[in-house]
Amino acid sequence: MAYLQSVVTRAGYFTSKKGRLPYLLLFPGMLWLFTFFVLPIINLAGTSTQTPVAGGETGQYVQTFRFANYIDAFNQARPQFARSFLYATLATLLALAISYPLAYAIAFRSGRFKNILLVLVVAPFFTSFLLRTVAWKQILGEQGFVVPALRSMHIIGQNTSLTASALAVVTGMTYNFLPFMTLPLYASLERIDPRTLEASNDLYANGITTFRKVTFPLSMPGVVAGTLLTFIPAAGDYVNAAILGNPNTTMIGNVIDSRFFNIVDYPTAAALSFMLMAAILILVTIYIRRSGTDELV
Amino acid sequence: MADASSSSHGDLKLTRVTKSFGDFTAVDDLTLTIPEGSFFALLGPSGCGKTTTLRMIAGLEEPTVGSIYIGETDITTKKPYQRPVNTVFQNYALFPHLSIYENVAFGLRRRGVKDVKEQVEKVLKLVELPHLAERKPTQLSGGQQQRIALARAIVNRPALLLLDEPLGALDLKLRRQMQIELKWIQTEVGLTFVHVTHDQEEAMTMADTIAVMNEGRIEQMGSPAELYESPETAFVANFLGQSNLIRGEVVSSDSDQSVVEVHGQKVAVLKSRNRATGKSILVGIRPEKIRISLPDDPRNGNVLTGGIVSDVSFVGVSTQYVVEMPWKQDLMVFEQNDGGTPTLRPGDPVSLSWNPPFTFGLDGSEDVNAGSEVDEPA
Ligand SMILES: Nc1ncnc2c1ncn2[C@@H]1O[C@H](COP(=O)(O)OP(=O)(O)O)[C@@H](O)[C@H]1O
Ligand SMILES: [Mg+2]
Q: Of A181, A287, B68, B141, which is most buried, counting CB atoms within 10 Å of its CB?
């Protein structure tokens, strides 16, 4: 770095002040973010406060800075908001419960199968998200093996089906976002020095205590990263609810989708998007603060 | 939960302990007694099975064969957390997410000890780092981490403290200082220390008893002076300090000494210091025991003539000579710089002599170079 800097300085590009190179390196990224994130966001913010043109056609809006749009939008979509956060939370917890033992086994117990298992974890990414969701629908469908099996064991009634239900939506999201949970968990478990676990054993902690006092706390960065990477896309997801749900399981993403593309109610869709973003941002901030993982890195 | 203070104290006994990894034998039929309260060093070159031995004592590895006792209690198959044994790991293995205070308190809390605060503060004072209690391990220097690892272990007052090359990561100066401190702390707390090292100087300065280990076996065990003055194998003779080992044949013996012919010259070896069972023998003598003199000077005791000085190096308190003997073997001689030795240059003819009781005899089937080419301590 210092070398590069001196080269740049000697070449006479920046003779006035040292330390400009970092900014120079940041520039392409900043430009990208500005063009494709900041500008659209400003645009979206504008749209969210528009009102229909008086006597105009559907889809024609004029900027009026009507902030009451937000209140209207929220009142219309309150159940979907609640459902989004409920489903996302459930899917995140479920994914954590499934991923933790899996990541633990891969990190500590897999031996020479470690790489194969890791490839298997990411393997679903090789097919499209949509296809996977459709596949999940078939797995849970009448023709799949799950329903007949559960029926024959009398776990579900003869007329109960699993598709088109909240259960299908939540398990679908769990399934789709599982690698986002597993990989960060694996990464942080893998980083734990096995000798700290031995030290814990040596200092009179049995397996369970060692897990509670050493392994789990040390894996917190992975838990936080994994839950965020699962919760955030899950809260905004609409594919799972669209394919696996019913009219009573619609999430906020489905409302935004239909407002934009079916009803062409751009202001409401934009306002809902903003509220979703804000809600996620606030929740995530509180979560990171409370988990106190910054101390661990 | 093991309570270190009330559970079995006493000597540590390893009986015929073997540890195999697949078809590789890391520790081979090891039998060892470590007296309670002693500072015991396990010394050997890297890869000889020291860590594996410690891990079996700690319970982190289970012996393939054999048993381990502390006093009258068989701990062979006990879990690590059930043993009154604590370890100072080579890389310290402090808990990165816990403060120094909590690191040290860890074992006490697991055992449900009452006066945690008092004990932690006391041991932090002992290692002279009470002011670091609130820090995290990563904020400490290597030497400080080393002391905390020690404090975290001794605060539990285990029947046995295992130290796996605890000073290996420290620089030379700090290492020498910590050697003295460790020894002092051991005397202070009165625990049994089992100290693993590949540094023979470290083992000699610290330990009451040293076991020299080689390829999974104990070569010899004894006090530093015993091992140095009376090595029983070529490996020990070469690994602890330096030795001159000369091949010879026993030509006659009486009740207290044997006469050995080495390349046409005769030297005496005390029977009590002779390990050779047959006629073939390695005559051993430490370099600092040898006097170097001009060929014509009268000498008595064991004398070897016909040497030619091939190298002289002056190292302050002493001068080190390499002398080539007529049978093309280089012998080492260390002379005190006390004015008693003539000034010698490479090429000068010399005789070597020493007091016969300093001679030790090793079995003639041994490799003269065993233990001299293993890795030098860093
Ligand atoms: N878990 C293991 N699996 C296979 N071989 C091992 C294992 N642990 C140690 N060894 C082998 O056993 C030998 C002794 O190792 P170790 O006890 O660590 O030696 P030291 O501590 O004396 O350097 C080495 O050759 C090492 O490669
Ligand atoms: Mg070792």
A: A181
